[in-house]
UniProtKB/TrEMBL annotation:
InterPro entries xrefs: RNaseH_sf (IPR036397)
A molecular function (GO) term: nucleic acid binding
Protein name: HTH_Tnp_Tc3_2 domain-containing protein
């Protein structure tokens, strides 16, 4: 990466001289001079490592508490980046979540929506059986895909669900410019 002084010299010379002349004078490759001139805008505040940190912090925060916002992520990162930048990065992430509902109640009846829990009399589970996955949801750029799952799933069925339903949803909704990131 070139220093600010070298970049400024390239900008000053490029108005009057050729890229090859500047390359000989500054002992920098002429393609570097050309790219420096064509990328003359403001330097990015986030590099790839910082973008990955945003993703990692967001995912860690969501594991602890699903109500996460860009201000929490910014405070945790301690970067001089605007909230809008963090919001844009979070918006490009895709999230999946699974919820298992217990059929017989050993989860303290949190999965049941009943006004009077005391009157609900259910048998206790004797083994590890008795839980089902009701639905799966995929969220990407304010669009979501909700699918109903009919039976208990093992890893093969889960992979089949991803391939047949979730990935086609993503392929159809990801912008054309972003597709090479995923496929």
């Amino acid at each position: 990466m070139l220093s600010a002084e070298v970049r400024q010299k390239i900008f000053d010379y490029s108005r009057e001289k050729s890229y090859r002349w500047i390359a000989k004078k500054s002992k920098i490759a002429h393609n570097t001079n050309r790219k420096t001139r064509s990328n003359a805008g403001r330097q990015r505040k986030l590099n790839k490592a910082d973008e990955l940190k945003i993703k990692r912090v967001t995912m860690d925060r969501i594991q602890k508490n699903p109500l996460v916002n860009s201000r929490i992520v910014k405070n945790e990162l301690k970067h001089n980046v605007s909230l809008r930048t963090i919001q844009r990065k979070i918006k490009t992430m895709d999230f999946t979540d699974e919820k298992k509902f217990s059929v017989d109640g050993p989860d303290n009846l949190r999965s049941y929506q009943k006004n009077d829990v005391a009157t609900l009399n259910l048998p206790k589970r004797k083994g590890k059986d008795g839980s089902i996955m009701v639905f799966g949801c995929m969220v990407y750029l304010d669009k979501f895909y909700l699918t109903k799952i009919s039976s208990r799933m093992n890893s093969d069925e889960y992979i089949k669900l991803l391939v047949t339903e979730i990935f086609p949803f993503l392929k159809n909704n990801i912008k054309a410019g972003e597709r090479e990131k995923y496929w």
